[in-house]
Specification:
Elements lengths: L20 E8 L3 H11 L3 E8 L4 E8 L2 E8 L5 H9 L2 E8 L3 H10 L10 E2 L3 E6 L9 E6 L37 E3 L2
Parallel strand pairs: 1-4, 5-8
Antiparallel strand pairs: 1-5, 2-3, 2-9, 3-4, 6-7, 7-8
């Protein structure tokens, strides 16, 4: 075995890709109600979304900033990742989110270019698939890649003895049904 480091391919061998836009700027806060005094009340940004993300110990509020959103993140559990971030670093910029068309291609391309990833596979986020790029590769800024949920294709006609029936076989699951646990549960915050 050689001690030689494998070099990423030259950029000419990599398919051209680029993010479609900056989706949001995420700010970790101890209190969303306190943060809204600035972002909503003083700056005049309107609230697009206010939700609790179950399983992530997180409350999110997104504000419209003329095409880009400001996402306020308040931990609902101090042991969650945002709670730990606040403990170590205090309030402030948490991450930038870039929307991409094909998150798997983006991850493969970044890996081929020698970029350190936190997630080598996308995971489910509140409204799409996400993956994070390590701040060591991005001048100290946590980067989130985001791909919108793709529509689930309609169920194809089952192959049964009933050729004119579009109903699934008794006991079967239609192919466009989302099984429990595939996408995170989101509840509107009160």
């Amino acid at each position: 075995m050689s001690d030689q480091t494998i070099q990423p391919p030259a950029p000419s061998f990599i398919i051209r890709h680029e993010p479609t836009r900056v989706r949001h700027v995420s700010v970790a806060v101890r209190s969303i109600s306190e943060a809204l005094r600035f972002y909503r009340d003083a700056m005049g940004l309107s609230v697009n979304l206010d939700m609790d993300v179950s399983g992530a110990s997180l409350r999110l509020v997104r504000l419209n900033a003329h095409g880009t959103e400001i996402q306020l993140m308040e931990p609902t559990d101090a042991d969650g990742s945002v709670g730990q971030f606040l403990e170590r670093r205090g309030e402030g910029l948490h991450h930038l989110t870039f929307e991409v068309d094909d998150i798997e291609l983006e991850l493969r391309t970044l890996l081929a270019r020698g970029i350190e990833l936190i997630d080598r596979e996308p995971r489910d986020g509140p409204d799409g698939r996400v993956a994070f790029v390590h701040p060591r590769s991005t001048s100290g800024v946590l980067i989130e890649l985001f791909e919108r949920w793709r529509p689930i294709p309609p169920a194809q006609a089952p192959t049964t003895d009933r050729p004119d029936s579009n109903e699934p076989e008794p006991g079967s699951t239609p192919s466009n049904t989302i099984a429990d646990g595939q996408r995170p549960e989101i509840t509107e915050a009160k």
